[in-house]
Design a protein that fits this description.
- The complex is a heterodimer of chains A (about 290) and B (about 190).
- Chain A has 13 helices and nine strands.
- In chain A, α6 links the parallel β6 and β7.
- By secondary structure, chain A is an alpha/beta fold.
- Chain A has an eight-stranded parallel β-sheet with strand order 8-7-6-5-4-3-2-9, with helices on both faces.
- In chain A, α2 packs parallel to α4, α2 packs parallel to α12 and α12 packs antiparallel against α13.
- Chain A is about 45% helix and about 15% strand.
- Chain B has a single domain, classed as Class I glutamine amidotransferase (GATase) domain (Rossmann fold, 3-Layer(aba) Sandwich), CATH 3.40.50.
- Chain B is about 25% helix and about 30% strand.
- Chain B contains six helices and twelve strands.
- In chain B, strands 2-1-3-4-12-11-10 form a seven-stranded mixed β-sheet. Chain B has a three-stranded mixed β-sheet with strand order 5-6-9. A two-stranded antiparallel ribbon of chain B has the order 7-8.
- Chains A and B meet through β1, α1, α2 and α12 of A and α1, α3 and β7 of B.
């Protein structure tokens, strides 16, 4: 019996596909998410919009908060650790969390190195802005990738930019000749073997979700049509006026992302979504997606 | 030529379709009730069983699947698919379809860090042991008189079973390159 194998780690992400992973800060919110059809929850101390508002150093959640959420729901529970903070990762693994997000939403602990994720039995998801970043994280052991987007803004523009970058670069590599791949690996700052694999298969070797700024059912379906295999919704649910309704509608729009009739129906009478931020008005030091490399 | 529908509400439906494609079998995604009318057999994939069960219910698929399986459509559930097909889920949700007479325990081996791969004997497939991938997997704790166990992990842990035209596995044959379970399923005749 072999535990913690690559197939088992990447496999859980495959089981999450087509689903919505929702940020929650209390067991009650976790229950609402589960009842709405979330395929997993992300247990946090604060949702990104509140992290943005609070400022200061954002760290992993209090273990008692994570444990309370794990006790409340039967769906997988994820938690975030700081970029490079492998002890936070060890702590969350020891709690029995199902997936770790080495996340730019928290304040980085190491500005040079990400966690060497192959050392862990628990699988990791990491953010990316382009294909090179995705492949560096996969080489370090990430068993799932998500776009960074710009978390806590309720503005999908950065998630779109990052997803288009990743998918466009995959298409470009697929069309290249064998002789061009090494130079492309150099340009991307990515391991050659993974560039070769993308050339051969036309896809990332792990599941790729969208995250960062998704606030409505149509946003979720947009990301799916652009190539995401599922979505993370952070502040978009519990910063809206009617979280249960938004949660359910985003789940339905994610499943039926190619069916405008279903998305239209799911979008009706939801009330106010979270209020959004124009990303262009944010100062450089307020941007979360530039953290990590 | 048989057309296989794969329930595509959530989970690893694309992996099942890839295996079927590689075998030269036509596969269709099933998302709404009318999709089910175009297929001769159905696979309910791995995924999150509470999510799949909820979406099945709210889009009218639960009832449609019950009638189709009732009329004999060969159906196979892997992992979450096994949970939603079961008669009873021990100490837990979600509401299942009750299409195979088994009692199932969800997350029977623990959390993700306890997920594993193992070689298991499946006499009905013949040949070498089957590499089975268990991800937050359920286990069958009780089986009715009409159900045939196909594989055990230990004496008390049934991990594959069949009742007539309904097949269930705790694990994910779609995550390996071994097509024997898919071939076995495709040979199951329409039930009565």
């Amino acid at each position: 019996m072999d535990k913690g194998t690559w197939r088992v780690k990447a496999g859980l992400a495959q089981m999450l596909k087509g689903g919505v992973i929702m940020d929650v800060v209390t067991p009650e919110q976790a229950k609402i998410a589960e009842d709405a059809g979330a395929c997993a929850v992300m247990a946090l101390e604060r949702v990104p919009a509140d992290i943005r508002a609070a400022g200061g150093v954002a760290r992993m959640a209090d273990p008692s908060r994570v444990l309370a959420i794990m006790k409340t729901v039967t769906i997988p529970v994820m938690a975030k650790c700081r970029i490079g903070h492998f002890v936070e990762a060890q702590v969350l693994e020891s709690l029995g969390v199902d997936y770790l997000d080495e996340s730019e939403v928290l304040t980085p602990a190491d500005e040079s190195n990400h966690i060497w994720k192959h050392d862990f039995k628990v699988p990791f998801v990491c953010g990316c802005r382009d294909l090179g970043e995705a492949l560096r994280r996969i080489a370090e052991g990430a068993a799932m990738i998500r776009t960074k987007g710009e978390a806590g803004t309720g503005n999908v523009v950065e998630a779109v930019r990052h997803m288009r970058a990743v998918m466009g670069e995959i298409r470009k590599i697929q069309a290249m000749s064998q002789g061009e791949l090494m130079a492309e690996a150099k340009a991307l700052g990515a391991p050659f073997e993974l560039v070769q694999e993308i050339h051969d298969t036309g896809r990332l070797p792990v599941v790729n979700f969208a995250a960062g700024g998704i606030a409505t059912p149509a946003d979720a379906a947009l990301m799916m049509q652009l190539g995401a295999e599922g979505v993370f919704v952070g502040s978009g649910i519990y910063k809206s006026k009617n979280p249960a309704a938004f949660a359910k509608a985003i789940v339905e729009a994610t499943t039926h992302y190619n069916n405008p009739d279903v998305i239209a129906k799911a979008s009706q009478d939801l009330g106010e979504p979270m209020s959004g931020l124009d990303v262009r008005t944010l100062k450089q030091e307020e941007l979360l997606s530039v953290r990590g490399w | 030529m048989v057309k296989v529908g794969v329930l595509a509400l959530q989970g690893d439906f694309a992996e099942h379709i890839q295996v079927l494609d590689a075998m030269g079998v036509e596969a269709l995604e099933v998302r709404l009730p009318h999709d089910l009318r175009k297929v001769d057999a159905l696979i309910i994939p791995g995924g999150e069983s509470t999510t799949i069960a909820r979406l099945m219910k709210s889009f009218g698929l639960a009832q449609e699947i019950k009638s189709a399986v009732g009329e004999g459509m060969p159906t196979w559930g892997t992992c979450a698919g096994m949970i939603v097909l079961a008669r009873e889920i021990v100490e837990d949700r979600p509401e299942s379809l009750g299409l195979i007479d088994i009692q199932v325990r969800r997350n029977a081996f623990g959390r993700q860090v306890d997920s594993f791969e193992a070689d298991i004997d499946v006499p009905s497939l013949g040949g070498a042991p089957f590499r089975a991938v268990f991800i937050r997997a359920p286990v069958i704790e009780g089986i009715g008189p009409g159900v045939k166990p196909l594989a055990y992990l230990s004496d008390h842990q049934v991990v594959a079973a069949q009742e007539g035209h309904v097949l269930v596995t705790s694990f994910h044959p779609e995550l390996t390159h071994d097509q024997r379970f898919h071939s076995y399923f495709l040979k199951i005749p329409v039930g009565s």
